[in-house]
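quick one before i forget lol
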Amino acid sequence: MEPGNGTQISEFLLLGISQALELQPLMFGLFLSMYLVTVFGNLIIILAVSSDSHLHTPMYFFLSNLSLVDICFTSTTIPKMLWNIQTQSKAITYEGCITQIYFHILFALLDNLILTVMAYDRFVAICHPLHYTVIMHLRFCGLLVLVSWIMSVLHSLLESLMVLQLSFCSDLEIPHFFCELNQVIQLACSDTFLNNIVMYFSAGLLGVGPFAGILYSYSKILSSICRIPSAQGKYKAFSNCASHLSVVSLFYGTILGVYLSSAVTHSSHSSATASVIYTVVIPMLNPFIYSLRNKDIKRALERFLGR
């Protein structure tokens, strides 16, 4: 394939996470099962929250949005990977690659921002309980989600448009199972300085920023819990944010741990493994974490599934 600008590129090759042909059927079954569990698990959470009037509160409103984003986030990469495994094809069109980049960035950032909004909700509930209903009213909650969507859409649009301006070399093999922004930029023949600046700046601003906000919220939450005199009160306060804290720890711990190790080893396989964990495994585990650690969700699921 001749090098040229974006309009002359016909397709990229996604090398996946395993080159062994004998492992392809096993991988297909494994990822199909994980994808179905992710979709149905999060869909049940959405239906349970929407059908139970007791769960029409800010915390569960954000949870249902998180479940919706997790379904969309997983759906940007796994169906294409399953199709490639099934057809024994590693190709993805140039247009499909750009589209995948756009939606992957969109839902990854949206996942991050909604987790941050949920941390703020728990901060207000525990640190300012008397003002909770005044602060976290329906319009404000909707505004927080809307702003998160707008920021995610604009950021993913910016990154995608900048990729469209690049010229690519003849070797268009991506050592990944989807079109990750960093991997695609590395294939460009043209100057990628501005792309890298925007990518790393946005990672710091929109990645580290929300994470710092979550850490600040939980530092205040822990401080407030420590001031509660009774052990029962402390347990009740902590249980209100235990599920969210578990999801946040899993989400950021996995990304930071595995990507830092892959940065040290410069291994594309480690990077692909990290992507599998945060694009498939974590969205799959979220419904279990919230349903197993939350009595309200358990009761809502029992009522919904018992119909």
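fyi Residues 1-7 have pLDDT under 50 and may be disordered.
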